[in-house]
Automatic annotation (TrEMBL):
One of its GO terms (cellular component) is phagophore assembly site membrane. This is WD repeat domain phosphoinositide-interacting protein 1. GO terms for molecular function: phosphatidylinositol-3-phosphate binding. The keyword Thylakoid does not apply. Keywords: Autophagy, Lipid-binding, Membrane, Repeat, WD repeat.
Length: 410
């Protein structure tokens, strides 16, 4: 529901509540060359790191225009992750875990394997606050750490080669990973570490997967890379899908391959039984870093792709049949509040009513509540709706001046 971008002049925050209109929530030009900007969901708390001071983390209450605190570290900050309970700062060879309510340093994980990209993932569900990071610089081992109990949970031997991407689902019960080869994506159960799914992105070429993300309902997993193709996989067991599928040549061949796996070595048969992409997107650009998200906007599932040249592309995702996603809007994130429209794609015929009706029928979710104070408006307009099971025992109330004393830590 929110997008944060760092620019050469500062940072910008957007609300993603509409396809047609991009609502800029905040813009700051106080700190130039921002390369990390992380917002706590739809609240007023934002964490910023700039190239001018790459070893310093600044925490702001942007709505009031005040600095809550700042921390300095021994080397450059490579990434920051946060939920309602913890704030994690990742350096090349160490990780710092803070209590987000008072920014107190709770734990320092020293001598981690060299992690030049700052690869790490934190569960957004603060009830568990699991943290995942590379457990080896030479193999695809994942170290799983419990950010609440501050203890190591387990080690997962995920891939043969070094890791390139990690992502938790919204509840923190699943973890997806990809290696530097980028050909296979695996999903593991958390905290046990058992392999649940294995998806093949492609076999022809190695790619650098830059973004790996689950949908909020954990039904889909999206992967984007430095190529022009974005893959969306559906988390379902093949034996449960389409039991009455009509006989076709491809279906017959699929059964033949499935039968053949019983006689092949495990390594080969595993590769043959991997799922292919449920849906795909062909981007107009290639070679640029991009970040993806699977979101529900105006009651329909969308794929969002933000590219490093400052564009946001919004696609329709058909949750029933998949296939090629349709581009419906292109926004410019670097203009002066103006939006660049893709007129050719704006003329696309509307999505059939049956598709919308199908999605509407499937979008029933358990009743949720809102907690005033997390967002600017209590979740009514551009804030988020917070499920009851995600309430903290003492929720962060970012509209309360006494919640974060304005301390400066050097």
């Amino acid at each position: 529901s929110s997008l944060a971008i760092g620019t050469s002049t500062g940072y910008r925050l957007f609300s993603l509540s509409s396809v047609e209109h991009l609502d800029q929530v905040h813009e700051s030009n106080e700190i130039p060359d921002v390369y990390i900007v992380e917002r706590l969901f739809s609240s007023s708390l934002v964490v910023v790191v700039s190239h001018a001071k790459p070893q310093q983390m600044n925490v702001y209450h942007f709505k009031k225009g005040t600095e809550i605190c700042n921390y300095s570290y021994s080397s450059n900050i490579l990434s920051i992750r946060l939920n309602r309970q913890r704030l994690v700062v990742c350096l090349e060879e160490s990780i710092y875990i803070h209590n987000i309510k008072d920014m107190k340093l709770l734990k320092t994980i020293l001598d981690t394997p060299p992690n030049t990209t700052g690869l790490c993932a934190l569960s957004i569900n603060h009830a568990n606050s699991y943290l995942a990071y590379p457990g080896s610089a030479s193999s695809g081992e994942i170290a799983l750490y419990d950010g609440n109990t501050l203890k190591t949970a387990c080690t997962i031997p995920a891939h043969d080669g070094p890791l390139a991407a990690l992502a938790f689902n919204s509840t923190g019960s699943k973890l997806a990973s990809a290696s530097e080869k980028g050909t296979v994506i695996r999903v593991f159960s958390i905290p046990g570490g058992q392999k649940l799914y294995e998806f093949r992105r492609g076999m022809k070429r190695y790619v650098n997967i830059s973004s790996l993300v689950f949908s909020m309902d954990s039904q889909f997993l999206c992967a984007s890379s430095n190529t022009e193709t974005v893959h969306i996989f559906k988390l379902e067991h093949l034996t449960d899908s389409r039991p009455e599928e009509p006989p076709t040549w491809s279906g017959y061949m699929g059964k033949m391959f499935q039968a053949a796996t019983n006689y092949l070595p495990a390594q080969v048969s595993g590769m043959m039984s991997q799922d292919r992409a449920f849906a795909t997107v062909r981007l107009n650009i290639s070679g640029q870093r991009n970040i993806c998200a699977l979101s529900t906007i105006q009651k329909l599932p969308r794929l969002l792709v933000t590219t490093s040249d400052g564009h946001l592309y919004i696609y329709n995702l058909d949750p029933q049949d998949g296939g090629e996603c349709v581009l419906i809007k292109n926004h410019s994130l670097l203009g002066s509040g103006k939006m660049e429209e893709n007129k050719e794609n704006d003329l696309q015929p509307p999505v059939p009513q049956s598709y919308a009706a199908t999605v509407a029928r499937q979008s029933t979710v358990p009743s949720t509540s809102t907690m005033p104070g997390y967002s600017e408006d209590g979740g009514a307009l551009r804030g988020e709706v917070i499920p009851e099971h995600e309430f903290a025992t003492g929720p962060v109330c970012l509209d309360d001046e006494n919640e974060f004393p304005p301390v400066s830590i050097q």
